[in-house]
Every structure is written in structure tokens, then in C-alpha cells.
Amino acid sequence: MTEAKILLFNKWDLSGVQVNDPGLRRYINLNAVVIPKTSGRYSTKFAHKNKINIVERFINKLAVPGHKGKKHKLTSGHAVGRYQSLAKSVKEAFEIIEKKTGQNPVQILVKAIENGALHEEVMGYRVGGIIARKAVVTSPQRRVDVALRLIAQNIFTVAFKNRKALPQVIAEQLIEIANNDPRNPVIQERHRIEKEAEGAR
Hints:
single chain, 201 residues, mainly alpha, Ribosomal Protein S7, 6 helices, 2 strands, globular
């Protein structure tokens, strides 16, 4: 008797999902789970993010997209809600992605994270009485964090006051970013930051 496979949401097999960016392989967790929810089990452990499935991290980011810029142009005040309702929306979005692309939706999510992950950014440091800006290579963990944040903020912005349902918006945005669409705000923001870093070398 063969052992049953553990499928995400009892639908998708994660064993075939590949991370093509070698720098991100250790930081995108694709361990087999049915329900992507650890309930903070790893929050007190070192490097706990690496132990959490990437789908759960994506859902957590959707719950609290966070602030954008120093003037708090984007707030999470409108994004409060239950984890279960967001998980249901992501599951429905994955079904739409599978129907549209014919691919494993988790692979599309991973590809979107790879395309949204920046390689360089600008950091400020004080030299005497002035603040100098210098280009730095972004660490792999931060690349995943920033990519998830940009994707979640973009979905939040598009979905706000939009007639389309949240699952439809999630599906459309993930497909666009996975296809490296230059008109998508996530891809534009990544190129803007990297171009700014190139000028600060």
C-alpha cells in the first residue's frame, strides 16, 4: 500500500515546485503541508521564517501589508480580518491560476517572488555631518521579505475599492509578476530601486 502524499489544501503537490534562483533556495520553504498555518510555533526560534511554508508567509503578509514610505501612504488599517478567510481567498486564487495557466499555482507564486526580489538597494550612513548613500547587495532573506511585502502591498492597492473579488485580484497580480510584466508596479518598483542603487555605486 502506497503512502498518501501530503497536498497543499488537499489539491497541490509541492514536491515538484522548483526555486530557480540559487540565492533563494534556502529561504523559500516548500515543505509539504495541508493547511499552511503554524500558529506562531517558530516565532521564538532563530531564523524562524525559514521554517514556515512560503504560502503561509504570503497569507500572513496579505493580512498586514504594512506601511509604505515614511509618510505612511499605505496603512494596514483596512486589511484586518481572519486568517481563515484570507487562506480561503488564496486557495480560490490558486484555483484560478491553475485554470488560467495550467501550472502548479505554488510554482507561479515562487516565480513571482523571484521576479519581485531585488538584488541591490541603497542604504544611508552618516559621514561627519552628512548622510551618504551607498549601494549594497541585498541579503537573500531580505530579498524574500521585500518581494512578499511588495506583492502584498500591490494586491492590497489594486483590491481596494475594486469591484473584482480578492481571489481574482490575487490571481491576476501573481500571474503578471510571474510573467515579469514591465507594467506591473512590483516589477517597476524593483527596477526603480536597483536603478537607484546603480547610480549610488
